[in-house]
Amino acid sequence: MPTGDLVPSSDGRLAMTVGPWAKEKLFYVRGYCDIFNTGMKGKWRTRTYVDLFSGPGKCIVETTGEEVDGSPLIALQCEAPFTHYFFNDLSADAIEALESGAASFTWANITYFNMDCNDVVNYLLPQLPPSSLDFCFVDPYNWQIKFPSIQRLTKARRMDLVITFQTGAIRRVADNPPQELDDFFGDAGWRTEYKAQLLAGRHTRGRILLDIYEQRLRGLGYIQIQDYLPVKNTRSAVLYHLIYASKDPRGKDFWDKISRRSSTGQLRLRL
Length: 271
Prior knowledge:
Elements: E1 6-8, E2 14-18, H1 22-40, E3 47-51, E4 58-61, E5 67-69, H2 71-76, E6 84-88, H3 92-101, E7 110-113, H4 120-124, E8 133-138, H5 147-154, E9 158-165, H6 167-173, H7 180-185, H8 189-200, H9 205-218, E10 224-232, E11 238-246, H10 249-258
Parallel strand pairs: 2-4, 3-6, 3-8, 6-7, 8-9
Antiparallel strand pairs: 1-2, 4-5, 9-11, 10-11
Helix pairs in contact: 1-10, 6-9, 8-9
């Protein structure tokens, strides 16, 4: 049962297989959805949730068979809900399962897309409310999302981001990168930056790659960026970092608050 497969869950709907570490990522997504809406509902009547890699809504932990809610169902369960939801996935089967699983949320204003994460941006933008506070979860399994897509999606919008930055996978190919990584970082210039910093020996490969990507986010107006949440596999190797980005200083306060503890309740020490 490889990670990322769609398999039947206990209710007969399709679910996505995930590693046990995915529960940590989803824990922080839940925390931010809750604090985002609770903290801002009095100031922003319109609040949107955008999920570019929504999956089928349910996840099954491959090592234990435990069934857990994925990011779209988590976002729908907020005590103070978002006013609009936008779910996208490249898999038609995943979107069909998600629509079925979300059908009980009859009050929710949900728009579904079944497209490539980059292509969907042009269709999504006209449907976003003109004046809203947005939270977008970008959860690729490698580097599918192109940086120009992030740029188009966030231009002139108050949109907080949580991006799964696949540190381990990108680090493994950075010395001989595929062409797609140029699109992920926005241009081929990252290659020169990476080599120069690597030769200088001031940081680890993962730290260099994170810094390069985050500098590009700052160029889009994201003044608050945090990446102190590495998600590790069962051998304690870093798989990915959760990059949090906001254009508002208040966002950092929210993220710091929900990330003080891990999903097991352990106090997290920021290094």
